[in-house]
Design goal:
Structural class: alpha/beta
Helix content: 25-40%
Strand content: 15-25%
Number of strands: 14
Largest sheet: 7 strands, parallel
Oligomer: single chain
Length: 374
């Protein structure tokens, strides 16, 4: 709802909030305080935003509400017009995980408040993340003389991605697809698999079952005629003191985070081609465990220990093992714990950036990806 006034009701560049719920307006901005050219000299341009309000005749109820905020001078304001903007903000119902991926694969990037929070700040921040993702993708490109050779080697890759619908798994799948790999995508939920915007053979399997691990490996070989790489991005998290964790929670942590990677590697080793790669993502928690994450950290540290020993065993077959330990990454996993509540954390890394580093390591010669590699 737009108004013109002889004087601004506030002097600064403020977003004035009304949290009382006594009217339809949620916030008021004096736009001419931000840019004087928005109004003629000696006049002020004022906007009252009413998100989520269905009615269209808002002048009088908004004027009444603003009179309570700024006094009787509001009666002298001139109503300019009311703009109804359908779908002006994305629906973001709780629980909502911000920092949605800005890379859609195939060199396509997107930004906007629908990738972060439905706000001006969210739109600006997503623009920054998008710019950083584009810059990162350019930095990681090879010089022109290497591109044709690199493209051929990527096109030949058959990759099994476990946890392909997760925040990091989907970013890795998008990077591999963008580089031409033939993908077999595994997740527990078929509906989530169908939402992936990458091509690949989709399998809804619970890899906590050893027979499902073999099924996934066999399906990847059947789909592509061979298997070159296995990426395990499956994981669950739990928070809270050890004394408060149930046995069921601890069992689920180790079954998913520890036993699953071991069972999947065991199933994949006989099928992997010479020069094949297994990449497990243990995370920075495997380097330094934290209070209220002790059981989760232990389940990830066990994976790192397993990878260290498997590296020496698999060397005889020409198989390379990568243990990836990225720092905290904005995958949304912390918003979906199987127990407890996540502590306040600083902003994490963009999953796209982490995925680029992991895929580069798979295609290179890396045998270990500590947190300092990201």
């Amino acid at each position: 709802v737009w108004f013109a006034a002889d004087a601004a009701p506030v002097a600064g560049r403020y977003l004035v909030l009304d949290g009382t719920g006594r009217g339809p307006a949620r916030n008021v901005v004096v736009h001419s305080n931000i840019a004087a050219s928005y109004a003629p000299p000696g006049r002020a341009l004022i906007a009252a935003a009413c998100p989520g309000v269905a009615e269209t005749d808002l002048e009088q109820p908004v004027r009444t509400q603003l009179r309570g905020m700024f006094g009787a001078t509001v009666d002298n304001w001139t109503h300019l017009r009311t703009d109804t903007i359908a779908h002006g903000q994305p629906t973001q119902l709780p629980p909502f995980g911000p920092k949605q991926p800005v890379s859609l694969g195939d060199g396509l990037f997107v930004c906007g408040d629908h990738r972060d929070t439905a706000s001006i700040q969210g739109a600006l921040f997503s623009g920054r993340r998008c710019g950083e993702a584009v810059a990162s993708s350019l930095v990681h490109r090879q010089p022109r003389r290497h591109r044709e050779q690199e493209a051929r080697s990527m096109t030949d890759l058959s990759v099994l991605v476990a946890g392909a619908t997760g925040g990091l798994g989907s970013a890795i799948a998008a990077q591999l697809a963008d580089r031409g790999a033939t993908l077999t995508l595994v997740s527990r939920r078929q509906d989530r698999l169908e939402q992936l915007e990458v091509e690949g053979h989709r399998l809804a399997l619970d890899l906590r079952d050893p027979s499902s691990c073999k099924h996934a490996v066999d399906a990847a070989v059947e789909h592509a005629g061979r298997l070159d790489v296995v990426v395990n991005a499956v994981g669950v998290v739990a928070f809270g003191p050890v004394a408060e964790l149930s046995l069921d929670t601890m069992e689920e942590l180790f079954l998913t985070n520890t036993f699953l990677p071991i069972m999947l590697a065991r199933a994949a080793l006989p099928a992997l081609s010479d020069g094949g790669v297994i990449c497990n993502i243990s995370g920075v928690i495997a380097e330094k465990n934290m209070p209220n994450m002790a059981a989760y950290g232990a389940s990830k540290a066990a994976v790192r220990s397993f990878d260290e020993a498997l590296t020496r065993e698999a060397r005889r077959q020409g198989i390379r093992i990568i243990d990836a330990r990225p720092p905290h990454t904005e995958t949304g996993l912390a918003t979906r714990p199987i127990a407890g509540e996540a502590p306040r954390m600083p902003a994490g890394k963009d999953p796209v950036d982490v995925a680029v580093t992991i895929v580069d390591a798979i295609l290179g010669e890396a045998k270990d990806l500590p947190s300092t590699s990201f």
